[in-house]
Write a structure and sequence with these properties.
Number of strands: 11
Helix content: under 10%
Structural class: mainly beta
Shape: globular
Length: 126
């Protein structure tokens, strides 16, 4: 099992930047594919970005592809989401998630991730 704790959320003006962090417990962090999802009240959680176990491959939602970057540090057991050029529509609770499956594929469905953090609020003002 792995426990995930997000941090780094907050209030930022449109056009600004934030870096989210997700710290994982345990010594097997490098065996998990990791992802970020986000959720607006009243809407389903949506996929934001995912990263492979080594960090060599990433996948992002089209709406954030040129603005957000997912990365990981397997020594620090942490996954990051660097968010630049933030827009009001990026306002959401952001969650990190871990996928323990042996598949190489970077998955995008909420149901495919076994472990979740508690979320961190990101608010972008216009």
């Amino acid at each position: 099992q792995v426990q995930l704790v997000e941090s780094g959320g907050g209030l930022v003006q449109a056009g600004g930047s934030l870096r989210l962090s997700c710290a994982a417990s345990g010594r097997t962090f490098s065996t998990y594919k990791m992802a970020w999802f986000r959720q607006v009240p009243g809407k389903e959680q949506e996929f934001v970005a995912a990263i492979s176990r080594s960090g060599g491959r990433t996948k992002s939602q089209d709406s954030v592809k040129d603005r957000f970057t997912i990365s990981r540090d397997n020594v620090r057991n942490t996954v990051y989401l660097q968010m630049n050029s933030l827009k009001p529509e990026d306002t959401a609770v952001y969650y990190c998630a871990a996928d323990a499956s042996p598949l190489v594929l970077l998955r995008t469905k909420r149901s495919e991730y076994e472990y979740w953090g508690q979320g961190t609020q990101v608010t972008v003002s216009s």
